[in-house]
Amino acid sequence: MHDTLFLFGATGDLAQRYLFPSLLRLLGDGLLPEDFRVRALALSPHDTDKFRDLLRPRLEQAMPQASQGDINNLLARIDYRSVDLRNAESVAESVKDLVHRRCVSYLAIPPGLYISTCEGLALGGALTAPNRLMLEKPIGSDTDSAEEILQSIGKLVDEDRVFRLDHYLGKAPVQNLMALRFGNTLLEAVWNRNFIESVHILVAESDGVDGRDSYYSRSGALRDMVQSHILQLLCLVAMEPPASLEADRIRDEKVKVLRALRPLDAKHAAKDSVRGRYTAGTINGQPAQAYQPPEGSEAETFVGVTAHIDNWRWAGVPFHLVTGKRLPERTTRIEVNLKPVTHWLFERPDRKHAQPNRLTFQLQPQENIQLGLMSSLAGPEWGALELQPLELELSVPTGLHRRIAYERLFLDAFNGNHALFVRDDEVRAAWAWIDSVSDAWKAGDLPMEPYPAGSWGPSQAHQFLPAAIVAENRTESGL
Ligand code: BG6
User: Active site located where (predicted)?
Assistant: First the structure.
């Protein structure tokens, strides 16, 4: 197991809110090597004591149940170096006294700094085997910038020592999708175009852009969420069963899905997509301000887009992908709508009002699986000729010990397991489709639709949103 972490971007929000707390949990649970140590690196001119003083309250806040002993144990393993990431010499200097150990460099920094930082790491000896590299999303902001990063870094470190993160893959409920699909005969039997009418993948957030304006105004929801998390969820739902759980067998199947995505073109942009930006509104009774990026920014905070997977299994099945900020609630769910039964026998409801089966995987904030059936058991007063919808619900018990996504990803990277990391060809294929969407928006002049914070997006959103959300909100928000 690798035992030395260089954590670049150590003063940033991601590191302080998630990465150090994850290390604290792993250490407390005895899952890290005995001589594990972290070198925290950022531009600020702190010394180690100052950095530890800043980190301590953040750890206490993020992990209120952690003991002071565990916190002291982690802090004692951390030292801090100030570094200029645009300067390769400075990066090399900041790591070279530790590169005789088994090192993992984690870049939690803007992708514009990846290449210069990696050049410095290579100069300092931190990218030679067996050392590893972990890269946060996004890898670039389009195909060209991603290609430049992949190629430049590819010259410095072998692909089998690069671990590209998409933290959704580290979430247990996301991994559970594979377990459910490939551990059960029942699902595989209907998992294709013959039985499935449509699939909706929704990642809704009630938070806004809040404090990330500079990154977000150049990115927007399509690049921030769809390129990574939503396409990864799509892959897990749509991929063929891999021959084994070996990392590359899984990634081979995911990349095939991405390559089968039909590019969006300008002609279909208005029908198959919508983009929006939140205006002022109210969420949970609290006023929320409008998102106002700098003049000239094209950043959308809401995207709905229908993906078509042109392959044998999924021909003709629309995958509606939706994400938005400042929506009424935080929820990530996958809704699979099955086709209606072929021949309807019952008097009531009539065929038109029968509800086809619907399978919903809610991944966040609570894990839950729901199966909508038609049944005469729903109430004793109904006879066999009169059916009613019956919801089978399987809630995962609360209090189940779920780890922070990054805990799992750290462990896998330290142990060299690539299964939950994104391969270079996946990055390329994902950007190719995302570029087709943003090019279609430009060529088709797709308007930026406003929506009030606290609503389910622009009025055009309803065709992309899961049917259950549309039904629940039809009266309240006029969807
Ligand atoms: C990040 C995005 O990758 O994921 C953020 O950059 C988003 O904009 C976040 O808020 C959502 O992650 P989670 O785990 O809170 O669903």
Answer: 229 (proton acceptor)
Given a cut of 70, whether residue 380 has pLDDT beyond it is: no
**379 touches 353 (CB < 8 A):** no
Which amino acid belongs to residue 176?
A: N
The residue nearest atom 9 of ligand 1, judged by CA position, is 225
Separation of CA 406 and ligand 1 centre (Å): 13
CA dihedral of 88, 89, 91, 93, whole degrees rounded to 10 = 160
Strands 448-452 and 358-364: unpaired
pLDDT of residue 221 exceeding 60: yes
3-state DSSP: the chain helix, strand, coil percent, rounded to 5? 40, 20, 35
For 85-141, what is each residue's pLDDT tens digit? 999 999 999 999 999 999 999 999 999 999 999 999 999 999 999 999 999 999 999
Site to substitute for ligand 1 among 166, 167, 230, most atoms within 8 A of C-beta: 167
Give the domains, in start order, of the chain with CATH numbers: 4-136 (3.40.50.720), 169-477 (3.30.360.10)
* pTM, two decimal places: 0.95
Residues annotated as part of the active site:
229
The closest residue, in CA terms, to atom 7 on ligand 1 is 225
pLDDT of 294-329, one tens digit each?
999 999 999 999 999 999 999 999 999 999 999 999
Predicted confidence at residue 347, as pLDDT, reads 83
Q: For Cα atoms 138, 143, 149, give the angle at the middle one, nearest 5 degrees.
A: 60
